């Protein structure tokens, strides 16, 4: 789809009646007018004149998260649907200027899901909103908003038609409601905008709406809005590509004798059965005598590899040797988790920070580490802010340090303002883990009151740091680990440091309990996501995160650092990132090609194989692209052509010293 194309709606004329079926007993003559933005000036002016200062409903269809291509404005009796293009010419068009005037005033604009909408309007159209009210907020806290109950309450609750809930669940209604971004048609988006405006004007909703914080982007800096857009957009894109079906590999399955539920043992951690969220269920396919039945269930209890699944277990039969050769008590079942995995605590916190910033409830400009990472053009550090003095290197293996390791340690131990944010890079084998151990030992030995947290994206990386500390003789640390990762799955990984572990089911609930568990430890290790867990507050109270040292930083999407930076903004004094800027282990020829044509030359690869023989180009212009799991494949394609031969010849010439150019 080119930048100027939008979803076509041949089934809908330029003007048509909107037959709403969300509210029973509501008989309004609602007309929908649709126009392309280039020819919408008169229609938009007429709409603006007709509605005066009355509140409006607003909805969009997005090509991708946060990128509107269709916009609908609704009064009580009229909906104007505008088909948009993209790029600077559209942003300066008279229609968009009129939209800025309508939405940037302090007229009430009602929406379902305002964060993405407000940020997308600013990023792609330069439109600010002055008084946007997200009706999803009437029902719940931010992190629980995408449920059927939430949408029903946002629509007003009372007066809804009998099939309103079913329509929402089937994603047929209100363009953006509980849908994958980008779906919907003109009728859908018109109905969503009208429903938002209608619900916002209901008498029964006024008290609930009164307590909601408004989204106001008029009084936020453009640089901050762009940063918030990227934070929101990147997370939504990541969530959108999560699989909707995951096959759970099972080692054993029986019907429990006590509760009659299905009891299973997962075979692999990656495909294990996990707790099902509200939007998920488990398909249980049972084979007996050559026939299959499929049941729907939910995982109600998880304990290590074992899981309890509530389903119609009376339909599950055993007896003798079944088709899979299992014993009498064993069931032949296949499990599939249906529905996207719910957001993690850290992901919900990230979204919540964006949510608060748009409502002027979180001042991110007042957070120097946020500014340093997301708003680098802003003044970051307060020159008058007190800094701890620099510390000398005090490391048992100091004599073995090379010049680059010594320089990295000095920057980490520096008390200078310009060293409050430090980046240490190096490929494998350059001693980065030794630098981490040296920094920890020097800080603990150099200042009896300083504390340090070592974090990484993965549990394995955290474990590796802990083992390195133990190897150099440092013992005063604690490792926080998730029970779900440790129990019955990876206990063997922690044998060397088992006595330093605090598992999540044993996290302290009070500062006194935390002080007892931590003892004299001033060094704590955990994953980045664990920092967002509420029960960790007692630990951070006893060992405040004054310095954060982030290992394997190149594996972390930068937005995932936001919860850490925001949650500990009042205690954080220094952040050190350690990683490998050449993290990608692919043959350099292949890596360079992908870098140049996909990543604007920003991707760096490290590999001993520098030969162009590592890949071949095959022309599949006549092939048909079909989805294969999380990827795509071409079928029915010719095996070779003059074009693929030319590309292979070009690759060969590069291998023989030729330069790469396209």
Automatic annotation (TrEMBL):
One Pfam family per UniProt: AAA_30
InterPro entries to which the protein is assigned, alphabetical: DNA2/NAM7-like (IPR045055), P-loop_NTPase (IPR027417)
Domain of life: Eukaryota
Gene3D superfamilies in alphabetical order: P-loop containing nucleotide triphosphate hydrolases
UniProt-recorded name of the protein: DNA2/NAM7 helicase helicase domain-containing protein
